[in-house]
């Protein structure tokens, strides 16, 4: 199956000069979406993760069904101030600004084997920060997975874990 057939490109969204990769057509096609989740799960299965960690917000769309398909737990990494209870957070620099992400204190146990999932790998900054945050808990990040990877932005160089992408664009 050619998964890129299910990705729409939207020029100048959300800002002029940006080419947005819209995963909505993939999500809307039950057969293609199931096959995408199964393909990612097959790649990740040999790592034997105990939990799938998804990055807000479109990463949740991939991580939650992936965790369910694999029969393991799902954990959310969210923007600062979006999770109840005690959290651990990490601030990091973006290309044009600053951001903070957090996770609930009890979400990860030391030594737990994890896979981190997002919808897209671009510069790698958010994924790199997510891995660092999970390592603060003593989490063992075995691999990362994405629906889309923008190869020309070289995000893999910032991600300190094996990476799998379903679709790659130059």
Distance between the termini: 20 Å
Principal-axes shape call: globular
In helices, the fraction of residues equals 25-40%
- What's the rounded overall pLDDT mean? 96
The proportion of residues in beta strands is 35-45%
Tags for this model:
single chain, 170 residues, seven-stranded mixed sheet, 4 helices, globular
List the helices and strands and how they pair.
Layout (H helix, E strand, L loop, with lengths): L7 E4 L7 E4 L1 H5 L1 H15 L6 E5 L2 H13 L2 E7 L7 E8 L2 E8 L8 E9 L3 H12 L3 E11 L12 E7 L1
Parallel strand pairs: 3-4, 3-7, 7-8, 8-9
Antiparallel strand pairs: 1-2, 4-6, 5-6
Helix pairs in contact: 2-3
Protein described:
- The structure is a single chain.
- The chain is 26% helix and 37% strand.
- Strands 5-6-4-3-7-8-9 form a 7-stranded mixed β-sheet, sandwiched between helices. It has a two-stranded antiparallel sheet with strand order 1-2.
- The chain is of the alpha/beta class and 170 residues long.
Brief characterization of the structure:
Helices cover 26% and strands 37% of the residues.
């Amino acid at each position: 199956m050619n998964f890129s057939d299910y990705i729409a490109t939207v020029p100048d969204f959300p800002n002029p000069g940006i080419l947005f990769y819209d995963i909505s057509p993939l999500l809307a096609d039950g057969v293609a979406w199931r096959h995408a989740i199964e393909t990612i799960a097959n790649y990740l299965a040999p790592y034997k993760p105990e939990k799938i960690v998804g990055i807000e917000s479109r990463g949740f769309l991939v991580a939650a069904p992936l965790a369910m398909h694999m029969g393991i737990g799902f954990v959310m990494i969210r923007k600062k101030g979006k999770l109840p209870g005690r959290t651990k957070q990490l601030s990091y620099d973006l290309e044009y600004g600053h951001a903070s992400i957090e996770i609930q204190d009890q979400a990860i146990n030391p030594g737990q084997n994890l896979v981190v999932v997002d919808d897209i790998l671009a510069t790698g900054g958010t994924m790199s920060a997510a891995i660092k945050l999970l390592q603060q808990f003593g989490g063992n990040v075995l691999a990362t997975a994405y629906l889309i990877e923008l190869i020309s932005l070289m995000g893999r160089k910032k991600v300190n874990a094996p990476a799998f992408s379903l679709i790659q664009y130059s």
